[in-house]
């Protein structure tokens, strides 16, 4: 594939509109000329005005009529926003297309910052009420992170891997492993064990931190490379040549692993937000249940 | 001989493709080269890597070409002969060749397949997607739901409560109870000690805090035993309910409409006294709350003597209780202040005469100031150019009101009752007892021949009367002169003659508190910039009966609902309690907790006088504490 035929991730970004094959591509953020952004801004403006002008005695909070109203709107929005998880599995065009739905999800979700904060009346404490508020902010924050990484990371992902598919990355490493195996067959036991350590002890993937940072702790290949580099100066003749060949294989493998790890790291950063966004949403709903029940339990 | 070669390749999207070809020859060349019989696309494979030769009787010979690496059972081998019946696997580079007998006689089957990726590198999804490094989102979500509900809902509900301690008024329970995670906000300071004991007030699930719960501490009958304050300030609840109109505001109407469905009674303690709304907020009601009933209360509470009032701006004129001295005994009468009323205290006291700076009174004040006081100390008049209000009006210990003026303390320094001096002893008449005065004077005149000796020129009163009496002749005339016009008693008192040498003096009655339903602390208003005369027009009247109370307009100079820079914000509760009690109202009591919330600076500048160098807040604090 020539480079001009590559998938242009920038074009597929949220927030960018490009003319593509004569058709206007409109991202979910720009959907219908920011219709849902305007709706959300209007809701926020109304909420702020109400908060400023309604007499909330003895003080603003969830217990005034405006507080109950903002709280009810907030809960309704949260439950509706949660439904995106079900809605997204059915792709339909039109007024309530998935794009429209997603656009509304983002902007109405952001308006919750205003609605929720006004509902609190700026009263915070170490209690289930503030827990619900904090969880809401975590959900919204992770969502914002998700939009941000969808805008930037796919390009990085594409730049990193070029034409190489994930399968090819693994095959390439496996192929090097086989060559290492073959090249190491004439070696003595200790040295063969080091090469075997590279083949068996390759770390790719691993835990969450390892994936996010793209740094493998205690990778067998790195150890093997260091060990052979230490052996090389003392070696002569055919043995030196053999060691040199193996070291080159180790270095090729190190490069292949680096490519795969960067790929894994970018993907992890691209995927991690949903592991916060979704569970925190359900934690939020649980906290909301506790919040509402506790208020009426100690009515 | 025939080789049947089955080459298996992996599809990109999963699955396999099989290609089979038959070669009728004895030798197969395996390699990367295009003319190899089995072509392997693998850099680890040499162009011509190995030969596979049929040597008959179900056996083949595998021969590496030019020392290329060929493995059988993970061992490098040279030229080997293999039995097809044992299905040998020959590994060349990254490919494996599975040899075996063909379906037909004389056929040799060769299955060519890429070696599987070793171990952990096989599962593409496991390596590249984050989901394998974490529990699934479903598990995480359920875990968090269970954790949150268990910790913040089930635990607080199910954990046993310690026995109720509120009624006993004891301190907080020592043990932590998980319902504290439900605490919606700080309690008001008087209730703060209950903040770790939710169940003290929230005794029934899903039932709003009941009046009964409040009254378990705040009942009047428990005053003696309980450390709590009594229920103060409240009018009879029945009259409260009868008087209330539609409380203004959407919130109140909503509460009235839907509250009962949620167990909120229309009339309950918690309806007005909100809790968990912050330590800095005490449950003091707003002006709108007061006006909700009082703006049109007469229509509902027809027997009330209170006048409708919608706000401080339209506050009706004050209706003080004044002393009516016209009858046999004084009684209190309510009047509407109009600036023309008279109040007869029974005392003749022209204010303007006494407060003049240029007359004989001022001169006498200066003279008194030059002498030492009776106890030998400095005179209270020392340095004074004239009499001041405080020379006769003394604040009570709280500073809120004044104690009654008395003859002995406040008048006698000038208005002496001395009538004779004898061997350095000054004889004085007994104040307040006409019969004793008559008896004493009669005795004295009998002994001394009917003439009292003047005791000094500086003192007036009896001395003046004495001179008059001396000019007159006869003891009875002297006695009569004391009680009649020009005499010492007559100057200040209303005297009635009830027979020959029999007189009654009209009792002097001062009103202790004019505005019984309103709070006014003189100490709160006593600053250098607001002298007495700024409210009481004492300097311009010589009438003894003029009622010198300021009207509501006078108060409105400084007190306003929406204050300007030189005014003080003044809710209803700055003067009025809710609704009983003679003490300071809630607003003023609150001030004692936060001294300095009101400063007198603004008050001072409201009156057209220079501000004092230091604002005098001490008065406010002491009065509020006393109130």
Structure report:
The complex is a heterodimer of chains A (299) and B (627). Chain A has 299 residues and is mainly alpha-helical. Chain A contains 10 helices and 2 strands, in the order ββαααααααααα. In chain A, strand 1 and strand 2 (23-24) form a beta hairpin. In chain B, the strands form 7 sheets. Chain B has a 7-stranded mixed beta sheet, with no helix packed on it. A 5-stranded mixed beta sheet of chain B has the order 4-3-5-6-9, with no helix packed on it. A two-stranded antiparallel sheet of chain B has the order 13-14. In chain B, strand 15 and strand 16 form a beta hairpin. In chain B, helix 13 packs antiparallel against helix 14 and helix 18 packs across helix 20 (618-626). The longest helix of chain B is centred in the first third of the chain and has 22 residues, at 137-158. The radius of gyration of chain B is 54 Å and the shape is rod-shaped.
Question: Can you summarize this structure?
Answer:
With 299 residues, chain A is mostly helical. Chain A has helices at 31-53, 65-82, 84-87, 98-120, 128-161, 166-184, 189-200, 208-213, 220-231, 237-297; strands spanning 19-20, 23-24. Chain A has ten helices and two strands.
Which bin fits the share of residues in helices of chain A? over 70%
Distance between the termini of chain A: 68 Å
Based on Cα principal axes, name the global outline of chain A: elongated
Termini separation of chain B comes to: 123 Å
- What's the overall geometry of chain B? rod-shaped
The profile of the biggest β sheet of chain A is:
2 strands, antiparallel
* Uncertain stretches of 5 or more adjacent residues of chain B: 221-230, 454-466, 593-627
Strand content of chain A: under 5%
Rounded mean pLDDT score of chain B: 77
């Amino acid at each position: 594939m020539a480079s001009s035929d590559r998938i242009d991730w920038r074009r597929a970004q949220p927030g960018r509109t490009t003319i593509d094959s004569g058709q206007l591509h409109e991202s979910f953020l720009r959907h219908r000329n920011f219709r849902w952004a305007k709706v959300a801004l209007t809701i926020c403006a109304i909420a702020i005005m109400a908060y400023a002008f309604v007499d909330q005695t003895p003080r603003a909070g969830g217990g005034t009529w405006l507080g109950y109203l903002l709280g009810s709107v907030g809960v309704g929005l949260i439950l509706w926003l949660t439904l995106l998880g079900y809605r997204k599995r059915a792709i339909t065009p039109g007024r309530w297309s998935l794009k429209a739905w997603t656009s509304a999800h983002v902007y109405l979700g952001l308006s919750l910052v205003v609605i929720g904060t006004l509902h609190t009346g700026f009263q915070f404490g170490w209690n289930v009420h503030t827990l619900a508020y904090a969880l809401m902010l975590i959900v919204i924050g992770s969502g914002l992170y998700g939009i941000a990484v969808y805008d930037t990371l796919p390009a990085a992902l594409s730049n990193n891997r070029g034409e190489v598919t994930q399968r090819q990355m693994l095959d390439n490493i496996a192929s090097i492993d086989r060559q290492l195996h073959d090249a190491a067959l004439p070696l003595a036991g200790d040295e063969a064990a080091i090469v075997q350590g590279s083949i068996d002890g390759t770390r790719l993937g691993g835990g969450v931190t390892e994936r996010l940072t793209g740094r493998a702790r205690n990778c067998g290949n790195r150890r093997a490379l260091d060990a052979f580099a230490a052996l090389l100066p003392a070696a002569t003749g055919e043995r030196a040549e053999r060691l040199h060949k193996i070291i080159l294989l180790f270095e090729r493998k190190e490069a292949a692993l680096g490519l795969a790890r960067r790929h894994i790291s970018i993907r992890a950063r691209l995927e991690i937000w949903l592991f916060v966004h979704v569970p925190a949403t359900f934690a939020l709903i649980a906290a909301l249940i506790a919040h509402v029940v506790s208020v009426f339990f100690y009515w | 001989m025939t080789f049947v070669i089955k080459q298996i390749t992996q599809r990109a999207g999963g699955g396999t493709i099989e290609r089979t070809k038959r070669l009728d020859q004895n030798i197969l060349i395996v390699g990367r080269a295009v003319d190899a019989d089995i072509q392997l696309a693998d850099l680890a494979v040499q162009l011509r890597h190995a030969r596979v030769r049929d040597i008959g009787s179900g056996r083949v010979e595998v021969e590496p070409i030019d020392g290329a690496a060929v493995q059988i059972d993970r061992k490098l081998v040279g030229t080997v002969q293999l039995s097809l019946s044992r299905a040998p696997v020959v590994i060349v580079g990254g490919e494996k060749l599975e040899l075996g007998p063909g379906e037909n006689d004389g056929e040799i089957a060769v299955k060519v397949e890429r070696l599987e990726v070793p171990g952990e590198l096989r599962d593409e999804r496991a390596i590249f997607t984050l989901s394998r490094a974490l529990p699934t989102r479903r598990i995480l979500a359920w875990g968090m739901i269970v954790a949150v509900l268990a910790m913040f809902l089930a635990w607080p509900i199910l954990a046993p409560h310690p026995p109720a301690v509120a009624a006993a008024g004891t301190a907080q329970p020592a043990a932590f109870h998980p319902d504290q995670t439900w605490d919606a906000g700080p309690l008001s300071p008087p209730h703060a000690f209950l903040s770790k004991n939710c169940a003290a007030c929230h005794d029934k699930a899903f039932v709003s805090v009941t009046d009964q719960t409040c009254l378990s501490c705040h009942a009047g009958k428990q005053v003696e035993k309980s450390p709590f304050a009594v229920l103060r300030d409240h009018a009879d609840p029945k009259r409260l309910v009868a008087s209330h109109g539609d409380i203004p505001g959407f919130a109140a109407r909503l509460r009235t409409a839907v509250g009962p469905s949620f167990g909120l009674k229309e009339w309950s303690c918690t309806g007005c006294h909100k809790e968990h709304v912050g330590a800095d907020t005490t449950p003091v009601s707003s002006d709108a709350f007061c006006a909700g009933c009082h703006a049109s209360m007469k229509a509902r509470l027809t027997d009330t003597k209170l006048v409708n009032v919608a706000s401080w701006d339209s506050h009706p004129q004050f209706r003080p209780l004044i002393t009516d001295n016209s009858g046999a005994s004084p009684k209190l009468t309510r009047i509407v202040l109009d600036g023309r009323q008279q109040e007869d205290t029974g005392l003749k006291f022209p204010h303007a005469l006494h407060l003049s700076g240029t007359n004989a009174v001022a001169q006498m004040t200066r003279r008194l100031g030059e002498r030492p006081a009776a106890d030998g100390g400095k005179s209270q008049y020392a340095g004074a150019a004239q009499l001041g209000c405080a020379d006769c009006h003394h604040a009570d210990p709280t500073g809120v009101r004044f104690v009654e003026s008395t003859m002995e303390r406040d008048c006698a320094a000038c208005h002496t009752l001395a009538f004779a001096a004898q061997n350095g002893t000054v004889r004085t008449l007994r104040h307040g007892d006409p019969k004793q005065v008559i008896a004493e004077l009669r005795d004295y005149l009998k002994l001394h021949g009917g003439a009292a000796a003047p005791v000094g020129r500086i003192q007036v009163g009896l001395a003046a009367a004495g001179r008059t009496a001396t000019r007159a002749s006869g003891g009875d005339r002297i006695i009569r002169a004391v009680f009649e016009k020009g005499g010492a008693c007559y100057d200040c008192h209303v005297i009635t003659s009830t027979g020959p040498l029999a007189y009654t003096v009209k009792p002097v009655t001062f009103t202790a508190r004019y505005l019984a339903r309103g709070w006014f602390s003189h100490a709160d208003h006593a600053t250098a910039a607001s002298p007495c005369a700024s409210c009481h027009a004492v300097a311009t009247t010589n009438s003894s009966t003029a009622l010198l109370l300021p009207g509501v307009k006078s108060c409105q100079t400084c007190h306003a609902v929406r204050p300007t820079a030189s005014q003080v914000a003044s809710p209803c509760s700055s003067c009025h309690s809710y609704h009983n009690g003679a003490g300071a109202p809630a607003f003023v009591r609150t001030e004692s907790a936060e001294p300095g919330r009101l400063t007198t600076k603004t008050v001072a500048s409201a009156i057209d006088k220079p501000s004092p160098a230091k604002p005098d807040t001490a008065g406010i604090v002491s009065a509020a504490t006393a109130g």
